[in-house]
Design brief:
6 strands; 164 residues; Cyclic Phosphodiesterase, Chain: A; 26% strand; alpha+beta; 27% helix; four-stranded antiparallel sheet
Length: 164
């Protein structure tokens, strides 16, 4: 899971209010699901410990993402703005597979769900909301709550050199 930092979270919340998207969902729980891992029953504590060990060995650089529209009840972006997010996910899935965790193949359309249980026909272009993703979170999500199990920093492994 990836979460927006506080300043972008405030901007997302402002857009929700302007559009009347309200469902009592705590803004601190807004996130991007990188890949769902299944139901809580499939992940007893020993298996969570195993996954934590796998994720501790995962190395990835921070990357920038950007969203520029609201469609229905989701914050969305496209093209170049989410290319790095897709590459990050592919790298993570390869790492998990090499470690013995094979996830089902599924489409990935990065988004932030703004409300649950509401129908909406919003289709609005907004000023871009973007941030540098610098951590990956392992969260058990369900029954309207998030329980954190791990947090890993994404560390720049090679300096960005200026191009002349």
């Amino acid at each position: 899971m990836i979460k927006p930092p506080p300043s972008e979270l405030s901007e997302i919340t402002r857009h929700k209010q302007v559009l009347g998207i309200e469902d009592g969902y705590d803004p601190a729980r807004l996130h991007i699901t990188v890949d769902p891992l299944g139901s809580e029953k499939e992940w007893p504590d020993p298996r969570i410990d195993w996954l934590n060990a796998i994720l501790t060995r995962f190395l990835a650089d921070p990357f920038y993402i950007e969203f520029d529209r609201i469609e229905e009840n989701t914050l969305r972006g496209g093209g170049e703005a989410l290319r790095a997010m897709r590459a990050f996910r592919r790298s993570l899935i390869r790492h998990l597979a090499r470690s013995g965790l094979i996830l089902p193949t599924r489409p990935f359309n990065p988004h932030v769900t703004l409300a649950y249980g509401q129908d909406s026909d919003h289709r609005v272009t907004i000023d871009p909301i973007g941030w540098t993703v610098d951590e990956l979170l392992l969260i058990r999500s369900g029954d309207g709550r998030h329980v954190p199990f791990g947090r890993w920093s994404l560390i720049q492994r090679q300096p960005n050199l200026p191009l002349f």
